[in-house]
């Protein structure tokens, strides 16, 4: 057997959606790229699994909404390149109290004048019942990304462009230097550039490289609720995604997507979870309904009368949050040939094509295509440990 190749132009650690898109951009630019993943693919232990994610232009922060046209374009390009459907336009309803600052900022950034009241919303989307005094803003560009399929597709194209993907290899050690050495459970690899996109594991990882990043992994309970009338909230019906802003009973927001994963079951969950060590995620039981489920049940009872009020199914997923919920996309302050992409705080999937492009640009020493001020490591004080 020929000895395994061990030297590359770039090594990317973590084959979730961010690492996979980063590797895809690098390979498209003819960089000899190695993408390493600790688990056998596909897997459901990180943040990128499941069949659906929301994609929307509606963002309160202009620096994200400005990236969305390019992200939509790159998703379409991937669809065209592979002949695969990855996106379904459904629209998205943002709902909350009138004048709520985030809702207003989203409306402004969308360039939408219209604000719907309960009657207007019910006419457009019959499944929704707004509460008195609340309003809705509609993002017509929004829809659902077919997440598992998207991840598989981007990895396939990466390979087609000559990239190497090795799964079932956990990275154990990184030795910085002009040639970075990466030791895994199965081999030793070298490259002049390294990119770390290790999701919820990133904090522990970079700690060994002298960085204390404020990354908090959260365990998210994903809940599915049965349609009383089968098919009423399916992709084929007039059923949009939705997101609440500024509701007092759910300050982090409640969101939902039409029934996709499981016919007849609509996903409705909190945009929040409980702190967890990613290595111990299965040690906490999720079988007993907690207070968060009671809030969701009550929300469904009021706003989505077409659904039953007890969850039919619960799954788990991981967020990795930063304190300001903005991403970290930056070079290591001391080792500039090591780039870090982390802290996607539960909203990174839709932007992965642009994130991948930015991480690729940072790694190749190019001027990034967008203003990176909100994504720097140094916005957090005291991240560089004195010892290094
Ligand atoms: C329930 C839920 C709903 C969401 N909804 C939306 C949404 O609607 N819209 C949206 O835009 N975003 C959404 N997100 C967020 C989005 O899914 C994440 O931001 C995104 O998947 C993060 O991808 P990642 O590549 O950073 O992490 P991951 O997918 O976790 O990838 C990191 C990878 O690194 C690997 N790794 C870690 N350590 C090592 C090691 N030592 N060696 C080798 N490999 C390693 C891991 O195994 C993992 O595969 C949601 C997330 C969740 C959990
Ligand atoms: O990024 C998004 O669009 C969604 C919003 C709701 C929570 C999960 N992420």
UniProtKB/TrEMBL annotation:
Cofactor(s) demanded: FAD
UniProt keyword terms in alphabetical order: FAD, Flavoprotein, Oxidoreductase
FAD dependent oxidoreductase domain segment(s): 9-362
SUPFAM superfamilies assigned: FAD-linked reductases, C-terminal domain, FAD/NAD(P)-binding domain
Listed GO biological process terms: L-lysine catabolic process to acetyl-CoA via L-pipecolate
Source domain of life: Eukaryota
NCBIfam families, sorted: PRK11259.1
Protein name: Pipecolic acid and sarcosine oxidase
């Amino acid at each position: 057997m020929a000895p395994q190749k061990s030297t590359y132009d770039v090594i990317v650690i973590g084959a979730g959606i961010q690492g996979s898109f980063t590797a895809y951009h690098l390979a498209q630019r003819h960089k000899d790229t190695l993408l390493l993943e600790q688990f056998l693919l596909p897997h459901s232990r990180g943040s990128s699994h499941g069949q659906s994610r929301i994609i929307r232009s509606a963002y309160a922060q202009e620096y994200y909404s400005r990236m969305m046209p390019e992200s939509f374009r790159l998703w379409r390009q991937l669809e065209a390149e592979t002949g695969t459907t990855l996106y379904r336009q459904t629209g998205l309803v943002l709902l909350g109290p009138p004048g709520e600052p985030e809702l207003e900022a989203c409306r402004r950034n969308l360039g939408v004048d219209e604000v719907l009241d309960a009657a207007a919303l019910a006419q457009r989307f019959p499944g929704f019942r707004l509460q008195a005094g609340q309003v809705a803003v509609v993002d017509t560009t929004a829809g659902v990304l077919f997440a598992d399929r998207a991840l598989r597709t981007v990895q396939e194209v990466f390979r087609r462009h000559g990239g190497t993907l090795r799964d079932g290899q956990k990275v154990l050690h990184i030795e910085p230097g002009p040639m970075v050495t990466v030791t895994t459970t199965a081999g030793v690899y070298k490259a002049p550039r390294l990119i770390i996109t290790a999701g919820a594991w990133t904090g522990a990882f970079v700690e060994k490289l002298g960085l204390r990043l404020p990354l908090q992994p959260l365990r998210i309970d994903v809940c599915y609720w049965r349609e009383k009338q089968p098919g009423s909230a399916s992709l084929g019906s007039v059923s949009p995604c939705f997101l609440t802003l500024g509701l007092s009973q759910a300050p982090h927001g409640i969101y939902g997507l039409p029934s996709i994963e499981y016919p007849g079951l609509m996903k409705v969950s909190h945009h929040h979870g409980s702190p967890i060590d990613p290595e111990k995620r299965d040690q906490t039981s999720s079988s007993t309904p907690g207070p968060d489920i009671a809030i969701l049940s009550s929300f469904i009872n009021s706003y989505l009368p077409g659904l039953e009020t007890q969850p039919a199914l619960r799954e788990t997923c991981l967020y990795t949050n930063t304190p300001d919920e903005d991403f970290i996309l930056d070079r290591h302050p001391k080792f500039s040939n090591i780039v870090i992409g982390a802290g996607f705080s539960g909203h990174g999937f839709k932007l992965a094509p642009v994130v991948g492009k930015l991480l690729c640009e940072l790694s190749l020493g190019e001027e990034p295509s967008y203003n990176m001020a909100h994504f720097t490591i140094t916005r957090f004080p005291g991240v560089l440990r004195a010892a290094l």
